[in-house]
TrEMBL record:
Keywords on record: Amino-acid transport, ATP-binding, Cell membrane, Membrane, Nucleotide-binding, Transport
Pfam families reported in the protein's UniProt record: ABC_tran
Regions crossing the membrane: none
Similarity remark: Belongs to the ABC transporter superfamily.
Full protein name: ABC transporter ATP-binding protein
Length: 235
């Protein structure tokens, strides 16, 4: 059984249907990328998986649990964390306070081991631990956001455009970090605008367009598919 199984999910806002019978899965050790044009429903899909939006039809299962109608605070406890595209750090808190907020659902427990684990993955954050997150660069903030999510020691991390608005050098660094997180045993489901690079590092990928599944395959298959290239990768 896959770690995450999304089956024929239909969801939207108010009367507006955005996702139509979308299905995907993520195995425990995988990096899976979702690409597609603006407005395709990629962020909506992430929000629906994380319980911020409830499907009208279809089912979502995580680690053997039916989470179709679960609330985010329960989903977090099952081992899934979500890093949204915007507003993903507390700008008026320090780096270390952000990490502590990431572990908030655990209650009053000793966080030193969790912090050490996150700082080992992001040594820069240890150096900057007393700095306000709001004073950090875009790439550093993204590391704070991912680090905070990792404080819960999740089995699956949902990342919504982790490389948005970053320079090419930082994009490469964030993808390296994501690969490192995956090597440590965390499954990754990410939405990405940097489609070629994300498919280049992902085990598998999905193309979502107009709220529907269009293509799926290994990262390499999608990169080599002329239809995917022409329509979704800029030729
Ligand atoms: N809170 C909301 N209320 C109503 N409609 C929304 C809401 N959020 C998003 N939408 C609409 O849902 C559609 C899909 O948006 P979504 O953000 O999921 O797409 P996306 O594929 O992530 O796009 P992008 O790549 O531009 O971030 C869009 O038409 C958008 O206007």
């Amino acid at each position: 059984m896959p770690l995450l199984q999304v089956d024929a999910v239909t969801a939207g806002y108010g009367d507006t249907e955005i996702l139509r019978a979308v299905s995907l899965h993520v195995e425990a050790d995988e990096v899976v990328a979702i690409i597609g044009p603006n407005g395709a429903g990629k962020s909506t899909l992430m929000k629906t998986i994380f319980g911020l939006l409830h499907p009208r039809q279809g089912t979502i299962a995580f680690d053997g649990h039916d989470i179709t109608h679960q609330a985010p605070h329960r989903i977090v406890r099952l081992g899934m964390c979500y890093v949204p595209q915007v507003a993903n750090v507390f700008t008026s808190l320090t780096v270390e306070e952000n990490l502590e907020m990431g572990a908030f659902p655990m209650g009053k427990v000793d966080l030193s081991d969790s912090k050490d684990r996150v700082y080992a993955m992001f040594p820069k954050l240890r150096q900057r631990r007393r700095q306000l997150a709001g004073k950090m660069s875009g790439g550093e903030r993204q590391m704070v956001a991912m680090g905070s999510a990792l404080m819960m020691n999740p089995r699956l991390l949902l990342l919504d455009e982790p490389t948005a608005a970053l320079s090419p050098k930082l994009v490469a660094e964030i993808f390296e970090r994501i690969a490192g997180i995956n090597d440590s045993g965390v499954g990754i489901l990410m939405v990405e605008q940097n489609a070629r690079q994300s498919l280049g590092m992902a085990h598998r990928g999905y193309v979502l367009a107009n709220g529907e599944n269009r293509h799926e395959g290994t990262g390499r298959d999608l990169l080599e598919d002329p239809n995917v290239g022409r329509l979704y990768l800029g030729g």
